[in-house]
Amino acid sequence: MDEIIIRGGRPLAGTTLVSGAKNAALPILFASILSPERCRLENVPKVADCRTARHLLERIGVELVELEEAGSAVVLRTPTILSYEAPYELVKTMRASFLALGPLLARFGAARVATPGGCAIGSRPVDLHLEGMARMGADVRHSHGYVEASAPSRGESPARLRGTRIALPFPSVGATENLMLAASLAIGTTVIENAAREPEIVDLAEVLSEMGAHVGGAGSSVIEVHGRDELGGFCHRVIPDRIEAGTFLIAAAATGGDVTVRGARSEHLGSLLEALSGAGVDLETEGDAIRVRASRGLRGIDVATAPFPGFPTDLQAQLMAFLCRAEGESVITETIFENRFMHVQELVRLGADIRVDGSKATVRGVPSLEGAEVMATDLRASVCLVVAALGAANTTRLQRVYHLDRGYEHLEEKLTALGADLRRVRGPAATFAHTFGDESGDGAGSSGASNGSVEGGEPPVLHAGARGDGSAS
Ligand code: UD1
């Protein structure tokens, strides 16, 4: 397996350009299943998760062409499908594959999608997705690790979901996306209460509206989707990746550098900018450029992850790497996932002083970190180790870097252009999972942990009354 060798201690300097957002591109790629017409998506990042999505879409029967001359654009067409199934080998490789459920069910009346199972950052169930589909009239069953769902048939007419009111108990990003996708071809209006408000939801809503579904309220906690009998195609450019932008801002600060991140949207990064400035980092925003400078003494801060516009869980690990050398004490509270501190022990190997107590990590700033051999455990944990290593003395060897390839486009090239000293050493052939990503979306690779309800022998539970009686939440 590949390794990255990082010689730390060089302040990053210069300008870097943000790629398209993986977490926005993925649901939009799945939205193409909803229409027989041509769908064109631009600014799709060249990362392993998007390749996994492509692989799955082609298995389903989506015709997909990559337009190399247009950079990162793809054209997709789904006149019909070959299969209703998202197989386990792809869903375990990337959790977002579960987003095939909504579009398949809405357009073709049936779907068979593997349940994602457990993952190293937490249990990550899909009950909210399924309860919502059931509220829209779907018959949802569990069989041999798969969810088999069908839309209610209506005599001679094709099976269709029907709009309804769904109140989510938590503003789940994945569930909000899956339900928006399903609702776009449902009969009537679907209202999603306590919906996720992330920028990626707003991007998906724009696409669905362009396809003909009227989507109101995206970005607020109540989203209304007026379903249509048929949807048209779209031509859309994916929003910039706020997590990649944030990662570069943090890396620049962690190395005491001076970096301008271009193509970023500061309104997507408010909580991070606030945290960095609280820690003593200088920030300037002008148009789509954010300049970060960390020349003076940095101090510890307290941060808790939260749904947007709160501090993103996907930047928690990187911020922790930065805070390892900020003076004083920082407390980081992870509220989204119960086990998202896998990077702590690796940071400790680099000399950090961190104590974890449940969902809280207390970081005591140390004057310097020291290079060591460390192991990536998931996508954001891996990049946090890169951030730490760039600011550490001597050399760090980062193993299991296939995690990084899932979500960062040209990471080494971009960092090298900013003056970092790092190189990849190619190892023996990777396995399928390594080639296509890890086993669990943005979180960690297969930990052997289960989501309990699957490997524990019991199927995920659809609560009684989840179907049609107003009690999905
Ligand atoms: C989450 C993050 C998203 C991030 C992604 C990858 C939040 C709110 N969501 O999205 O920003 O990009 O991980 O790291 O920050 N849950 C259930 N039942 C469900 C679905 C979710 O209980 O059916 C729970 C999860 O266990 C978790 C929380 O809700 O504790 C957040 O889940 P959700 O937002 O759905 O996760 P992702 O869509 O993966």
How does this model look, in words?
The chain has 473 residues and is an alpha/beta fold. The chain has 15 helices and 24 strands. The strands form 6 sheets. It has a 4-stranded mixed beta sheet with strand order 22-23-1-24. Strands 2-15-17-16 form a 4-stranded mixed beta sheet. Strand 4 (63-67) and strand 5 (73-77) form a beta hairpin. The protein is elongated and about 70 Å long. It starts with a strand and ends in a 37-residue tail after the last helix. Bound molecules: uridine-diphosphate-N-acetylglucosamine (UD1). Uridine-diphosphate-N-acetylglucosamine is lined by residues 23, 122-129, 170, 172-175, 198, 307, 312-314, 336-337, 441-443.
Helices, strands, pairings?
Elements: E1 3-7, E2 13-17, H1 22-31, E3 39-42, H2 48-60, E4 63-67, E5 73-77, E6 85-86, H3 88-91, H4 101-108, E7 110-114, H5 127-135, E8 139-143, E9 146-150, E10 165-167, H6 173-183, E11 189-193, H7 199-211, E12 214-216, E13 222-226, E14 234-237, H8 242-254, E15 258-262, H9 270-278, E16 282-286, E17 289-293, E18 302-304, H10 316-323, E19 329-333, H11 344-349, E20 353-357, E21 360-364, E22 373-375, H12 379-390, E23 395-399, H13 402-405, H14 411-417, E24 421-425, H15 432-436
Parallel strand pairs: 2-15, 3-14, 6-7, 10-11, 18-19, 22-23
Antiparallel strand pairs: 1-23, 1-24, 3-5, 4-5, 7-9, 8-9, 11-13, 12-13, 15-17, 16-17, 19-21, 20-21
